Amino acid sequence: MRDVAIIGVHVTKCGEIWNKSFRDLFVEAGLGAIKDAGVDHIDSMYIGCMSGGLFVGQEHIGALMADYLGQAPVPATRVESACASGGVALRTGMLDVASGHSDIVLVGGVEKMTDIGGDEATYALATAADQEWEGFNGVTFPGLYAMMAVAHMHRYGTTPQQLASVAVKNHDNGSLNPVAQFPMKITIDAVLNSVLVADPLHILDCSPVTDGAAAAILVPADRVGKLGKKQGVKIIGSGHATDTIALHSRKDLCALEAVSKSAAIAYAMAGKKPTDMDVCEVHDCFTIAEIMAMEALGFFEKGKAGRAVEAGDTRIGGKIPINTSGGLKSKGHPVGASGVSQAVEIVEQLRGESGARQVKGAKVGMTQNMGGTGASSVVHIMEAM
Amino acid sequence: MRDVAIIGVHVTKCGEIWNKSFRDLFVEAGLGAIKDAGVDHIDSMYIGCMSGGLFVGQEHIGALMADYLGQAPVPATRVESACASGGVALRTGMLDVASGHSDIVLVGGVEKMTDIGGDEATYALATAADQEWEGFNGVTFPGLYAMMAVAHMHRYGTTPQQLASVAVKNHDNGSLNPVAQFPMKITIDAVLNSVLVADPLHILDCSPVTDGAAAAILVPADRVGKLGKKQGVKIIGSGHATDTIALHSRKDLCALEAVSKSAAIAYAMAGKKPTDMDVCEVHDCFTIAEIMAMEALGFFEKGKAGRAVEAGDTRIGGKIPINTSGGLKSKGHPVGASGVSQAVEIVEQLRGESGARQVKGAKVGMTQNMGGTGASSVVHIMEAM
Known about the structure:
Two copies of one chain form a homodimer.
Chain A: E1 4-11, H1 22-37, E2 44-48, H2 52-56, H3 61-68, E3 76-80, H4 85-99, E4 105-112, H5 118-126, H6 141-156, H7 160-174, H8 188-192, E5 196-198, E6 201-202, E7 211-220, E8 233-242, H9 257-270, E9 279-281, H10 287-296, H11 305-310, H12 327-330, H13 338-350, E10 364-371, E11 376-384
Parallel strand pairs in A: 2-3, 2-4, 9-10
Antiparallel strand pairs in A: 1-7, 1-8, 4-7, 5-6, 8-11, 10-11
Helix pairs in contact in A: 4-13, 7-10
């Protein structure tokens, strides 16, 4: 396998983007990444999208985007792993370059979620769960993550205040990110007094419904500079793992086994350990998800992540800054794009381009992208070249 | 890149399969391929599916199928390229093995299309076209292919009888295939007197709506026999290309540029030419599609494929046997599975296992899988080891 590096990235403004279509958003991200990299062509494309069919009535997304990006006849493939679709696009593109088949690969992600009603969007998102056992019986994602939160609170004493601390920290970071959907700062009280969606999760514990896209350009690590103009960020670890699709089939409601396993593979490939990470984007679709993911990634002992967040350990300047972008919570969660959007943040951090959000001296970073209630997880570890 | 071979295949019965669910169908195909190969584990999975969201309300298909196949935590990714999703799964899995990242990869495809009404299925299929310009204005796939047929008839003198000859030949082949959805033989008169769907295409010019799944096991070519028990079939060529998503944007309504380009790449990689092919599965979603694809693949000169079919050149025993399985027309067209199902037929032909459908002495074969009106095409060339 050849080593692979990222030499260009771009993320669109996230939010309810009325004046741009599904394809417009992707093209904006793709052209932005191509410009950032300075490449004069691409060899192939991989596009993460969770449900073009249900959100905008469009499948055949690879060909559509190659066409509208002006890149046909290059091969273009859409990949899907629910909310981990972007992470899977990054990984699949990496394998294409690693194989020697392609030299310049565009990986991207896109979702246009606000063109349908809220109940339809809730149904579309629920297709990431087990349709026959969970969706059919009416469980939606806030309900599923609420069950995980209740279990975590019961076993470890995690508190609603600790959950709220995740949201407060991510909105603080998002207030420094010009693409964030909800860049306002919030308080613990605001979270705890916001509408209860599924006890113990309030609306401010939940990531929003978002339109947005992100893209990155991958090349062989030994050809950075020859193929583009930007500093390379090497992908030194990649792990992908699956778990039971249904929450009720898990051995432990408080553990994200696919996250632990995908992280273990990525750490081993990179020759790194959790304490080597300078900055990390974690899949915070709900506040409890960030807490459980950080424990599964080995940043904190089981049951202790909530207290660590409350103590400020995951803030910029803390022990391990988490979701400096604002995360899915504040930056927004265009589901198929989120995994690539995480990579955009880490690449910019490792290039020292994050401005007010910059983690000083960041050299090694991680992205962790998750589908469903953790039935899929994709972890990448990256290092500045 | 490492050379890659297929050592196990399986396809389910195709049709309106009331007693098996979306996941049941895939698991049946996956277990069948694992058994055929004789492998004791797999390293990763790629699953082609066009629209789990619209057909069965299920996305997150990679994790779902890894779970139900008993293979979690292996990495599992769903890929989509409309009706070329299966071909893209085969290609993506091939790149994973070629890269050196995985040794034993299961590629599969699945679609469960009959659980929704006919109008809903027509809408779901139309998402393979350009939603904003084609779908929105009410064009469906029979209408789009009818426009291509009219153009081909106008320029080259292709006749309704020649179109019907494709259907008759494919049903003759399908009558010998136990998994075929419509194994009955038909006549030219039956086609021409069947209901007109979109002039000049009658219902018997159209492939059906189908439930079904298919799977194959890929390994490094130099480890065939060590990893499994079956004769290997080497993938010696792979090409994937895109074209404009909308038919009205094409330079030529009578040409399938993505097919020509994907074939040229595959021929060059394999060091083969059209006359080297002993047997070929072509994407015959409509009879005109088979004619245009055969011309794009170089089997016949532009405008002459219709006459060749009428003359029997594409029958078993003819110059180049096409769709010995019965094709999408008679075997059935479970859209996300069709590309893998084509590979199953070619592998069995090259292993000499096709019984009454066997092409004598077949050593080199091809699959050509297409999305939309040809906005995507994936071509694989395979050789018996």
